[in-house]
Design goal:
The structure holds 2 protein chains of 2 kinds.
Chain A lengths: L2 H26 L3 H11 L12 H22 L2 H32 L4 H12 L3 H10 L8 H27 L3 H33 L4 H21 L4 H11 L2 H28 L3 H32 L4 H10 L5 H12 L5 H26 L9
Chain B lengths: L4 E7 L3 E7 L5 E7 L4 E6 L7 E7 L1 H11 L1 H14 L4 E6 L16 H5 L2 E7 L2 E4 L12 E6 L1 H11 L4
Antiparallel strand pairs in B: 1-2, 2-3, 3-4, 4-5, 6-9, 7-8, 7-9
The chains are: A mainly alpha, B alpha+beta.
């Protein structure tokens, strides 16, 4: 087979397998992310089937997948929702950080990672998967529940914090010293605030610049602008992901709806290649030795997320069963833990890859299962509720 | 609406939740999703934080329900108005994403000056801005409710869609 033929066949098979895995995941009521990770481990380096020809393509398109993931994350929330969540739920966001990041950091140091790697692991244990959680809330019919605004606000604050955490991590990984890290974070805070304020007043102008009757025009302009900003951010030593996130934030809500609809399928395709590329870079044999540590870390951070959700829901005056629902639904870690791990691996700490993979595998599966079965389990508390 | 207990909560990334305590003592939860779909729920008596019996509506179904419950009353009111003043009609004009007035103020449309029509309300998603002022900013997706003569309304329609 010549090169092009091999590339196309490999990619075709890959996407078909991903489709089957997605179906299986839906059937089981789980997120497809752990399935994709397992599949990617099974192929590639040290795996059953090599994906030699497609690998360079997958690595390149993984970068685009990362940019699109963060762009759609920025599009997900309007400035109004961010400010609203911050005003009302800032203490919950702080509790979330204080409870969930330190276990990751400590585990990183105990595993013998350099402090930059421990920092990455702190981010990995801190951030819940907004994709999995949002899906669960819809599937389980909890959108109208009274604890749900608190849960969603914790997710919003985490996602906003990512805009600050990612540049910090990137600078730390580059090893430029603490002064540069402080400067990078100050720059990131400034950029996020500036973009949010500008979006409030002038966002509609940007929206009008990108708007066109033709979907193709909108898609080309939006993707073009995003890649440009992401590239500039990367060259400035921030992260492409942060640049893309800021573009998403700056777009006005009126345009965001259309952008989400247009970008959705493209994002899904490229994000899939991102997860595959991440799995490819990790050899299955490296996972086994770190598995006990990852399971232990998962156990600890299930407890800390539970406490976070409990606290956030209690602030809203929600009873015990609702607090348990809020806590367990937040347990799932997923796409952004992998994003952080990807940055760490690319930044020269490949040891983060296997730990993060095992950790996400455990929690992307056990989180949804836990929150599904907490409802019948919390029945005894009903009498004491409120 | 006096005496009614309708509470609105923002659901980031999802939409808005409304909680309505009916006079009969029941609590109704309505989640209006960003994409236009809706969920209607009643709450568990034993666990008042938990939605039980959720009705899921697609955007079309939610629109149909809104039409059944809301629109006739609105139209009724304008029909009464039109009957009182012969020659007066009302119409609804959506502001499309390509409209020249997306992002500009109501005053910029110069509706009163150029067409003689009065914009009496702006309907934005689930909200209604009654008696809007010229300084109110329009966005794509808004629906303007205007009253005026048949010819004036036609003129206003062309102006809002950017044909004039």
């Amino acid at each position: 087979m010549n090169h092009v033929a091999a590339l196309l066949v490999e990619l075709g098979l890959l996407f078909l397998v991903l489709s089957l895995l997605g179906l299986l995941a839906r059937r089981l009521g789980l997120s497809p992310i752990p399935f994709v990770l397992v599949a990617a481990l099974a192929v590639g380096e040290g795996g059953i089937i090599p994906l030699d020809t497609a690998e360079p393509f997958l690595t390149a398109s993984a970068e685009i997948g990362l940019v699109l993931l963060l762009l759609t994350l920025g599009l997900e929330f309007s400035a109004e929702e961010l400010f609203g969540s911050f005003r009302r739920h800032a203490p919950s966001g702080v509790v979330d950080l204080v409870l969930n990041a330190p276990p990751g950091f400590a585990a990183g140091l105990l595993l013998g990672l350099p402090w930059e790697g421990a920092l990455a692991l702190a981010g990995i244990t801190w951030i819940s998967s907004s994709g999995i959680v949002a899906r669960l809330l819809g599937d389980l019919g909890r959108l109208a529940n009274r604890e749900t605004p608190a849960v969603l606000s914790v997710l919003v604050l985490e996602d906003l914090a990512m805009a600050l955490f990612l540049p910090l991590l990137v600078v730390a990984l580059a090893g430029d010293g603490p002064l540069d890290a402080v400067a990078a974070v100050a720059l990131a805070v400034g950029a996020v605030l500036l973009v949010l304020l500008a979006a409030r007043r002038h966002g509609h102008r940007l929206g009008r610049l990108l708007t066109h009757d033709d979907d193709e025009q909108v898609l080309l302009r939006l993707v073009g602008l995003t890649l440009l900003v992401a590239g500039l951010a990367q060259s400035l030593g921030a992260s492409a992901a942060v640049g893309a996130f800021l573009v998403g934030l700056a777009l006005p809500p009126s345009f965001a709806a259309r952008a989400r609809a247009l970008l959705g399928p493209l994002r899904d395709l490229f994000a899939a290649t991102f997860f595959v590329a991440f799995g490819l870079a990790t050899a299955p044999a490296e996972i086994v030795p770190v598995l006990p540590a990852a399971v232990l870390l998962a156990g600890v951070t299930i407890a800390t997320k539970l406490a976070t959700g409990w606290y956030a829901a209690r602030r809203e005056g929600v009873g015990v069963p609702g607090r348990l629902r809020a806590g367990t639904v937040l347990v799932a870690r997923g796409e952004f833990s992998i994003v952080i791990a990807g940055l760490a691996v690319a930044g020269g700490i490949p040891e983060v890859g296997p730990v993060a993979t095992a950790y996400v595998l455990v929690l992307a599966v056990s989180g949804p299962v836990l929150t599904r079965y907490v409802e019948p389990l919390s029945a005894p508390f009903l009498a004491r509720a409120r | 609406m006096p005496g009614m207990d309708l509470e609105e909560t923002l659901l980031p990334g999802v939409g808005v939740r409304y909680e309505l305590k009916t006079r009969a003592g029941e609590t109704l939860g309505i989640v209006v999703q960003r994409e236009g779909g809706a969920e209607i729920a009643v709450y568990d008596r034993r666990d008042p934080d938990r939605a039980r019996g959720v009705l899921r509506l697609t955007p079309e179904e939610a629109d149909a329900l809104a039409e059944v419950l809301g629109a006739p009353r609105l139209t009724q009111r304008f029909a009464d108005l039109s009957r009182e003043v012969p020659g007066l009609q009302s119409a609804r004009f959506p502001v499309g994403p390509g409209s020249p007035f997306d992002g500009r103020t109501l005053g910029d449309t110069r509706a009163r000056t150029l067409t003689g029509c009065s914009v009496v309300a702006i309907v934005r998603d689930a909200d209604v801005v009654p008696s809007p002022t010229p300084g109110d900013r329009l966005q794509a997706g808004d629906v303007l409710v205007a009253i005026g003569s048949a010819a004036g309304l036609e003129q206003l329609d062309r102006r809002l869609s950017g044909q004039v």
